[in-house]
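Re: the 727-residue chain
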Amino acid sequence: MDRADIVDQGFRTRLASGDLPKGKPAQGPLSDSEAVAIFRAQCLSRNLDRRSRKMQAEGQGYYTIGSSGHEGMAAVAAALRPDDMAFLHYRDGAFQCMRSQQVPGVTPTWDMLLSFATAMDDPISGGRHKVLGSRPLLIPPQTSTIASHLPKAVGAAYSIGLAKRHPPEHRILVEDSLVMCSFGDASANHSTAQGAFNTAGWTSYQSTPLPLLFVCEDNGIGISTRTPRGWVAANFAQRPGLKYFHADGLDLYDTYRVALEAAEYTRRQRKPAFLHLGLVRLYGHAGSDLQQAYLPKQVFEGWEGDDPLLHSARLLIQRGILTADEVLAIYQQAEDQCSRVAAQVITRPRLQTAEQVMASLIPPSRACSPSNGPSEEARQAAFGSDHKQLQTPQTMNKLINWALTDLMLDHDEIVVMGEDVGAKGGVYGVTQKLIDRFGPDRMIDSLLDEQSILGLAIGMAHNGFVPIPEIQFLAYLHNAEDQLRGEAATLPFFSQGQFTNPMVIRIAGLGYQKGFGGHFHNDNSLAVLRDIPGLIVACPSRGDDAAMMMRECVRLAREEQRVVVMVEPIALYPMRDLMEAKDSGWLARYPAPDRRITLGDVGVEGDGPLVILTYGNGRYLSTQAAADLAAQGIETRVIDLRWIAPLPVAGILEALEGAQKVLIVDECRSTGSLSEALMAMLQEQTALPHARLTAFDSFIATGPAYAATMPSRASITEAARSLWSAP
């Protein structure tokens, strides 16, 4: 027999016989009506779990990680307000059931069973996944993530105080709200979680407002690995900047009382708190998890003997609020409702086509207040001494800086964050003087943790800001790439565009940097970004393009709610000369603030029949090679992709009109590089002879061999000449 049915029978039998578990009497501020409401939510959550298993057995359900044993989270929901954003652990069905009672018009049984059935009517994911989440309940969707939602919870909490001082146009969270984030005891050990706890404590230690309530649901086990007894308390009771609370999660009165205290502390002090709940896990990790294979029987039977619903029944009966028959009636009503609704939801249509699945990859556009740009007086005041140089040709890092200045003047919701972006002005000076122009609220020097930087941005975007986080080097992104893949890019997909986190991530990357660093400061691989559905990746090659593309990136984030990455070639930041020393051939004037390069618009230089198709440093080197080829009588056309993802196919094909041969120059590695997609596109959509020149499949060395593995001016010239002369 399924353990869920055994627990169900045990509840009914022990309730009827009065064999209820021992425990403290009901104490605390919880009213009788609130206690009954919490119990109703607990019963509904329990029976939703049972129904999900039966639906799977019938081939009509697809997810069985349930919330049984964690029904105490209903009391946490009751202690919070429905305008407190909640990032939930995947075992928090009881929390969502309870919050549904606080918001009129929400139908938790119908909504959650639609999700179990992957029905297209599922109001949060549209049948794409079984997720907890609801826009009316202010619960962004989470899948079976392990702690990856904690960094963005920190960011969302931080945004509340910042929004009070700088209210964004699309603000969601109210001034006195807090953010709740829950997770399991095993998840608390994850490096992502530890980074979030550290960031929260680091922020609080400096007296920066951070109304964040962490809730650790400690059932003592992570799938099959036991958590050492006392470990969570020992780890968190004395953390600086993080106030610790503990409650018996099996006791709805104790849980409500302590959760209320923790929430009041967080709301009043604007500081983070850690609520540690003692719970049990019923049924194993999921329907397919046979816990008897790795746990002694007495262990999981002991947990079943401490069934939270039996504890709730004891407390309600002892307090004289309900009789045993009334307790059973509430429980049976929840089961009957789940059974009846399940029979209906399995008849609802499910996703069938790729188009249906992908319909929510791209978030919807949103209306934004029109702007005529900053006044000339405001620009003069902000730019200061730089204002006189605006018409003087400059390097890329300077022109990006000026573009950011104009954008931040125009849009108050833009906030920049990252390591050293403030007082230092960035490793390469891209953000110099911005802290003087806009202050530390909008130029945030973060601690050294890429996950926390991106989490801060994601969470702030939840509350209407348009963050521009900086990752110092492309190689450092790998420490935090799941914040993009698993959190930022998936949010509209799993919420049908109801939740979004628009932002522009700036990353200094690619190769050819001479004196600094080898692979960890020169990373010529974009594969990790290119394979994230819905992500936009930009890569400018000269300063004027960079300024105009940055404006388009911000527009895409602000108006179209997109997640955008701008990879800025490090070696081209300071580049001044093109063909020879002191020719200033790669400097550019600052484009007027109303000019931008739209998504998909490629750059073209020349109109020769031999095309060099490239991007980033490749454009710079190919421009040099084009001059060498012209001296040999070979006329070329250099096409700069500018946009790496999505691949600007229409723009490329238009730019290829009249071409005879195509050389792809890709500074990234041969395997997994953009050149593979370009070769496939040319093969499928043109009849043009083509070849490619790429970097070797190697990391990058420090010292004189810094560029030895990548295309060069000479190798591009030779490859182009060979292709052109081939029959």
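The first helix runs from residue 3 to 17.
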